[in-house]
Amino acid sequence: MALMLIKIRLLKDLESMQGLLQRKPNATGEERYDYLQEEAMSDILQQRADIVAKDDYKDLIAELKSQVLQLYKMVKEDNRHVWPGIENPNLIRSEFITFLALTGCAAAAPNPRAAKCTSYTIINTRGTGEIQGPSAGFRTMNSQITSQLPGGKIYNTVYLAGYDQNPAQGTQDIIREVNSVLASNPSECFILEGYSQGAAATVNALPQLTGSAGDAVKGVFLIGDPLHKSGLACNVDNNGGTTTKNVNGLEAFGGGGIPQNWISRTLDVCIFGDGVCDTTHGFGINAQHLQYPTDAATQKLGTTFVVKQLSG
Length: 312
Prior knowledge:
Blueprint: H1 2-12, H2 14-22, H3 29-47, H4 57-75, H5 89-102, E1 120-125, H6 139-148, E2 152-156, H7 168-184, E3 189-195, H8 197-205, H9 211-216, E4 217-223, E5 235-236, E6 266-269, H10 296-311
Parallel strand pairs: 1-2, 1-3, 3-4, 4-6, 5-6
């Protein structure tokens, strides 16, 4: 996602890149590419320090180098190896957008969000053993959310939440509820919440929520997720930190997990040592896994995230 954002921002920096390239009017395509990478790319990445951590620069530059070289090979058609339209910023912008589309870099759109959600539904999916109704994991934050933002409703996913760990019924109910509400109110916004087995039910619903149904979901908030996968940008601990970013949940191995196009609007919260989502430091359903409902940090994190996602 960070690389995607940099590429989008680069579109706004093409005029300054044009000036740099004009300093090398007679250079070959490869020489101009090297110059652009060394001078322009490093400057732009430094200017965009708010997007990516400094540790990411090396890998990002390496990938951008490869793609910029492809761009030059695409557009240098004559013996002078000059970028067509070098005097025309609009043409340069068009060339670059075409390049992004051809290389698949423009396929992932920015996070779809309405300017503001005046009517929204929070779909709350409880964990194993919780009785049908609202999950204890979200009671406090949902009370705060609906107090801060009018127009909110809570839907409690209908499924067994049994000890056999089969969340399929819950997944189908989440999908059904989204589509059912949208049929009568196409402008409705949704937040998906899931605790433990409920998190698995929610994650499994994501790839099946496409088109308008997917766009209507403005945020996903998970706690104690058994499908928590190491390394995802949406992985945080209960303080919003990274202590559980690089750990796996009980069911994380193999396929599935949070789809790439959902990561930017998801928080997958795992308390350090929770044996369901952090098998590196914990084992099974332990004290940490049961901590979320009464953990002030988790409830504040959820409230802040959801309010932001719904506020546009």
